[in-house]
Amino acid sequence: MIWKLASVFALVIVLMSVRLPISAAIGAGAILIGILFSMPALDIGGVFLASLIDLKTVNLIAVVFFITFLGGMMKEVGALSRFANGAAYVVRGSRVGLVSVPMFVGLLPMPGGALLSAPMIAEQAKSHGIAPGLLTYLNYWFRHVWEYFWPLYPPVILGMAILGIPHRHFIINQSYMTVAAIAVGTFVLFTFVKPRQVRPERAKGKARSALKDILYGAFPVFAVMLLIAIQLVIQRVSSQDSLTGSVVSQFSLSASMLVVIVFAFFVYRVAVRDVGKLVLKALNWRVLTVLVAVMFFKEMLTESPALAGFEQMVQTAPSSVLPLLVMALPFLVGLLVGLNQAYVGVAFPLLAPFIVHEPGLIMLAYVFGFLGCLLSPAHLCLAFSRTYFKASWVSVYKWLLPSVLALAGIALAVWFTFF
Predict the structure, then answer these.
(1) Global confidence as pTM
(2) Rounded distance, CA 54 to CA 52, Å?
(3) Is 250 within 8 Å of 218 (Cβ atoms)?
(4) Which H helix or E strand runs over 313?
């Protein structure tokens, strides 16, 4: 039984390591489960169809599409650039200003997003004399500080769908990791980046326009935050079994994103002729097909005897095996593949029966998977940032590796103390 599961995960990881599309690798793993556990071909096809039309899958695809559409719209109308210009004026060359744009861009998930913020941080860094390795680290690190809990990120959305838990779980149990990541990055920033001796004077009459630029660029993100906060309150006061609680729990994020997109469409005065172009850009088939493949993989694990055998093995093993497995499996997948959806999509369906009622183990699985992703040279943001700033791998990992180790230590300390 165990060798069959090991074969499935070895196949998936090998296929992803040779840069086969993640959806194809995970889909191949799902089909191999059916073959190894003697499921008829029609049953495999039935599981795929059932997972494809399942409400969770449809909602998952809608959420990711809306998020990508909003990010594309904001980029198209220049909202991100206006935010960067407004923030640059307000902070006036301070060290905080160096990381404000990567942090803001990080609130909007987009492939290779660090490359978008790289030119902006490079312009502000000229007067600080920062080495390329450190500059790469700052852009890369602060671009990813939100991914531990921010409910717009596909790995968080995917994790919620696989485990069947609301996003308030991630906010309550993992937002502290964002605080820790900001603290670690801030320590590096203020310890190793020298302040400017002379800060530029404020240009008269530009304060109001700078504030307008910031609000123009940031209001969709603020709107999403507000709607999520409202829905968390509704979930708190409503029973999950009630109609209100059920609807909000199932469709809260997709409904929020749709409302914000419609509002932003009118505020940004997007031309109707541009909608088709934005829709096509948002239809990122590499991402959307991953979601379908992961849900198929999850259902194949559930429908086959695979999980039963794995569960029996874990239950008879020493108690220390499960936490080690929870940390090691996501970390290795993240390190090898460098994509967040990969470690959630591959590891979480297998670990779900053991961690779904254990918030501490969910936290460890997600955090260590993401830390593996941060260290991976295959991570697009790391590769793009390093290339843009012309930094060597050694000069980047000199800052990145100690920071990741610090976060790993913090996650373990919190798990031992509070979970």
Answers:
(1) 0.86
(2) 6
(3) no
(4) helix 306-316
